[in-house]
Amino acid sequence: MNRIIITQFNDIVFFLVYEDDVLVECHPIMSQDGNDVQIGNIYLGRVQKKVKNINSAFISLDGENVGYLPLDDKPALVLNRKLPKGLSSIAESDLILVQVEQEPQKMKQARVTGNINLSGKYCAVDLDSGKTGVSKKITDNETRERLRALLEIFISETIENNLSEDSLSDSLGVNNNSSHKYGYVLRTACENADDSDIRKELESLKIQMDELINKASFERRTGLLFGNKPEYITLIESYGLDRISEIKTDITDVYEDIMGYFNDPTSNIINISQYDDKDYPYYKLLGLETEISKLLNKKVWLKSGGFLVIEPTEAMVVIDVNTGKSIGKKNRDAHILKINIEAAIEVARQLRLRNLSGIIMVDFINMDSEEDKGKVVACLRREFAKDKVTTHFVEITKLDVFEITRKKQRRPIHEWGL
């Protein structure tokens, strides 16, 4: 059973994920540091400076915040001029539409993209790709064909409406935004949804995108144009509605938001409830203070008596696996494999829990057998499949260190100053 718990501790709201009663994710989602740059926010930004040696441009998002945009990520919308054909990138002082895809981390600014995307429970719409599709997680062929047909009809009707709007705009001398070819993707939640609900959301997201472009077209000052939905809603959708059995919170506003978004027959969530025992705080019932203390400790004990030492550095995360108190009396190789398998499961869990990302180097206990090394790699891959953040096993180096990469999205928990 997978449970989502949202509670508050020390003025920070925590989004917790429990799988079979084991804590596997811990996201602080509100703090008092005044940082409002959140994943999904859409800004009208101005190009401050292009730095060719890092192949990026720095974008002023508003009066306080700056983001960086890779130069090969060409924005779909430049407001102050029309980009000539063949121009590979933007220029300094350009006014562009960007969306935050990675939060600020330490001394690094937020990473932004020119690929603007709006998403809902059932659909996602992007600004300029023109591509359409159905989630690969929907495997039933009949369902996929039904959803493709629904999408084709919607796009066909949209094109007809745009042609009519273009004719009217031309006669009135008004600019129209139909030149942008929106991309549409139907998400996994569509599998058990009514066609009418999917259609309604497609229409709503298209209208939102139209309004966003219109607003940007008439605005000349940098700033936030579209604030994404509450982060706990985004995290629930990212985790996957079909995987959740229960959501519980002790925060009234959060409870009301969740009920508004997810309390419908097409949702697979079994139970949404509010904890209301005023005499005993929810975070104490969960033992959250103890869990956070463990997350900030570099040593993690294993049931076998072995332990991990987790050391985040500027360049990478280094994890060392030790036998500790674990003693094997008989088959040494089998004993080491057992500890390493247990460690592999815990490494994958700790990466999610601590939100560690980038390059991760894991020094398992030395194994002589290539077959045993293969079993550890297979175990890592199985565990990484449970992680919604893209995580890959890369290779075993010549020094027998296991190299892993994990996509950077949110700040690791040790940077929150808890």
Describe this structure in words.
The chain is α+β, with helices and mostly antiparallel strands and 418 residues long. Helices cover 30% and strands 27% of the residues. The chain has 8 helices and 21 strands. Helix 7 packs parallel to helix 8. The longest helix has 32 residues, at 141-172. It is globular, with a radius of gyration of 24 Å. Residues 164-179 have low confidence and may be disordered.
List the helices and strands and how they pair.
Layout: E1 2-9, E2 12-19, E3 22-28, E4 42-51, E5 56-60, E6 66-70, E7 95-102, E8 110-113, E9 117-119, E10 123-126, E11 132-134, H1 141-172, E12 183-186, H2 195-218, E13 223-226, H3 231-239, E14 246-249, H4 252-262, E15 271-274, H5 282-286, H6 288-295, E16 299-301, E17 307-312, E18 317-322, H7 332-354, E19 358-363, H8 370-384, E20 391-396, E21 402-406
Parallel strand pairs: 1-14, 6-8, 11-12, 14-15, 18-19
Antiparallel strand pairs: 1-2, 2-3, 4-5, 4-7, 4-13, 5-6, 7-8, 9-10, 10-12, 16-17, 17-18, 19-21, 20-21
Helix pairs in contact: 7-8
Keywords:
30% helix; 8 helices; six-stranded mixed sheet; alpha+beta; 418 residues; single chain
How many strands?
Answer: 21
Largest sheet: 6 strands, mixed
SSE ordering: EEEEEEEEEEEHEHEHEHEHHEEEHEHEE
Order of neighbouring strands in the sheet with most strands: 16-17-18-19-21-20
- Average of the residue pLDDT scores: 85
Report the radius of gyration as a whole number of Å: 24 Å
Low-pLDDT residue spans: 164-179
> Helix amount, in percent?
25-40%
Structural class: alpha+beta
Query: With helices defined by DSSP (H or I, 4 residues minimum), what is the helix count?
Result: 8
Q: Determine the strand fraction and express it as a percent band.
A: 25-35%
Shape: globular
